[in-house]
Amino acid sequence: MVLSKILRLKGKDGAPPGTFGADFMASIVVFLVALPLCMGIAIASGVPPALGLVTGIVGGIVVGALAGQPLQVSGPAAGLAVMVWQLVEQFGLAALGLAVLIAGVVQLAAGMAGLGRWFRAVAPAVILGMLAGIGVLIFASQFHVMMDDAPKGSGLENLISIPEAIYSGIFPIDGSVHHIAAVVGVITIASIVLWTKFRPEQFRMLPGALVGVVVATCTATAMDLPIARVAPPTDLMAAMNWITPESFDLLTSTAFWGAALGMALIASAETLLCATAVDRIHDGERTNYDKELRAQGIGNILCGVAGALPMTGVIVRSSANVEAGGKTRMSAILHGVWILVLVVLLPQVLALIPTASLAAVLVFTGWKLIGIPALKKLAKNGKSEVVIWAATVIMIVSTDLLVGVATGFALALGRLLLTFARLKVEVTHDGQRWDVALDGAATFISLPKLGEALEGIPDHAEVHFHLDRVAYMDHACIELIETWHERHPGTIHLETDRLHSHAKGLRVAA
User: I need a surface site. Which of 50, 108, 185, 461 has the fewest CB within 10 A?
Assistant: First the structure.
């Protein structure tokens, strides 16, 4: 099935004639963007780099062939790095494969049940808060790795110990190489920033992350710096973290099930939101959300069996694909092929890369994920959005990802309920004419307020109800007004420029 899609070079699912050249060039760009991220995210997740590369290969070759959004690129995502790290810390590396397998099965079942579009039903403030919280955790943990040191534990511990890490990077003690690794990290970040700002137009598609890693690797190699390097797999099959029968004992753990289902939820939401973003930046085929979810499920099932990192659709690689001129799914497929070729044929090239350089890429990525510009834009929609964002971030950093997302979702739901519970009732009168203006949602929650206002209107008055600013009126409020009208001998008018569906059942007239 996968092979047939790869070989079908025309029609809706394949490449129309004349597009292969554009897809080929785009695949090179995506490959160059994906390579440092696959390894860096694996290191940030606390697993060997090989497991990130395997996910990149499966995400390209398999999911690229089956995806519901042809130009979306899938692979290991920074957004799941913290969750994977917590999973491995709590249950061990052997648990990773089973958790990813369960997440894949859930995604496949959800896609087959037609639930793809519902995974998008998450408030923007929660999504941005989730990304910002993840960004803080990645920034804090990888700051220490950038110094050739290990993360300290929890997100708060990593944040609090950053000043200590900076001090050790400036004033090394006990013959440590923290200061040397720090210089390599700074060189990487400086190269990314300078390249992004000043790169020549003809090299516009060359990613800053790759330039930063290449500059840092050349510097470390030329000076023979005594810092940690990436440990690439010499045998990709042997480097797999294959799922084992013993790991199924974890199915009795409620905490493990929570982690696996949370992984499915977050991976699905991130993937489908990414697909929506990709739809906005190109004019080609629109996303089939259920098909995309099924493809992600199949990809994560395969990654679970291999014990690799979970995958999602990723916006950085996907936008690079579109900007580089990718036309069909072939560009995503080929980028997975190039990763496979490099890992199998040239692992010695990967062994030259300093760990500090990859960590620096993730420090930069974490800072971008915090998304201050996006927060400013969000703030224009009201203070409640910022409160939800901040609560999500704080809870993710102080507790864990699932608690943070659940907190944000609960606050967003609470705000929605408050919105539907809010009804402003303004009663004014001029002689025998009384005006009742309703603003908000007239629901059963508002019955006491509405009833009290109506009871204050004297008999035989001429009452005008103004409903233009009523967002919704339920049966309870309609019945209250009708019952009051039956006991009120005056004349009642409904004054509205449009008779909303919620007021059609109101049997009162002039």
Answer: 461
> What letter represents residue 246's amino acid?
E
pLDDT digits (tens, 9 = 90+) for 50-85: 999 999 999 999 999 999 999 999 999 877 888 899
Domain residue extents for the chain: 18-412, 422-503
Question: Quick one: tokens of 243?
Answer: 């799922």
* Torsion, CA 407, CA 410, CA 415, CA 421, rounded to 10: -150
Torsion of CA 210, 213, 216, 218, to 10 degrees: -70
User: Over the stretch 92-131, which tens digit does the pLDDT of each residue have?
Assistant: 999 999 999 999 999 999 999 998 877 666 777 887 887 7
User: Locate tokens 């007004």: which residue?
Assistant: 481
Q: What SS3 class is residue 259?
A: helix
| Token couple for 276 | 């929506």
Question: In 3D, which of 420, 419, 421, 397 has the Cα closest to residue 407?
Answer: 397
Residue 136 has φ and ψ, to the nearest 5°, of -65, -45
Query: Phi/psi at 154 (nearest 5 deg)?
Result: -75, 165
What Cα–Cα distance (Å) separates residue 4 from each residue in 7, 57, 112, 356, 395? 5, 18, 21, 41, 46
CATH code, residues 422-503: 3.30.750.24
